[in-house]
Amino acid sequence: MQRTPGPLRSYVESWAPEAVTDVDDLHAAPVAALSALLDEPAPVATTGDPLPPLWHWLYFLRWPAQRDLGADGHPRHGHFLPPVPDRQRMVAGGRCTVDEPLRLGERAERVSSLGAVTTKRGRSGEILFVTQRHELRQRGRTCLLEEQDIVYRSGRTSTPHTRAALDPSATARPDGHWHLPLHPDPPLLFRFSALTANAHRIHYDTPYARDVEGYPGLVVHGPLLALLMLELVRRDAPSRQVLSLSYRLRSPVFAGEHLLARGTPRDDRADLSVATHRDPAHATAEVTFTER
Q: Are 244 and 98 spatial neighbours (Cβ–Cβ below 8 Å)?
């Protein structure tokens, strides 16, 4: 007889991982690679240049041994992975405050620690929210503070994630002042997975995504949606320096769909979103700027 898992809170009551420190030299190659993925004619930054907001996700990567991956491609073990049975993981959102941009080609230090751990009951059952904090430093100074919210569940939901029929020809309405389209295909998702050391099979294994996870197709990475929203700022407001940002990943987008990042500037801030014809806000973000 299969054992019914207990309340998620019971698995993390004594879970208190200590802070860990990582270093990275922030070499230029990952920025050049992501620039190519986004069809930029040249790298958006080279050695000595400021790193665009959220592009630090290309660094401080962890590559576990192949034997340490689970059936879904996620690591079986990890310092900040909660001890939940049959753990399923998705990024929910996050926040970031930028004191000064990181500089490409200079050694950086990242101190990671555990933040809030809370349980909630969603439509498909109990879920666990874990906040992970990161402090990134260069030359002995704190450059940015980041919090990432990760949602976990124990076991799989018994219902499909979405029953929407995918329409590869439909497009979103171009609302707002800033627009950036993207038509993600399997090679793009595969390349982004490699750039971010993300082995979750929903992003590159169609039979797995459809038959095991219950999606209608390959899932576009949540972090890619967040980066795409911030690309609006980099491209359409290049003279504005980001002071803070927050983003929320609300519903999945799938390979083959036409998505559109949209933005509206409002004095010292901007409201951003990612839309398809199915949903005007698969992801949302708000950015605030430093004073001119």
A: yes
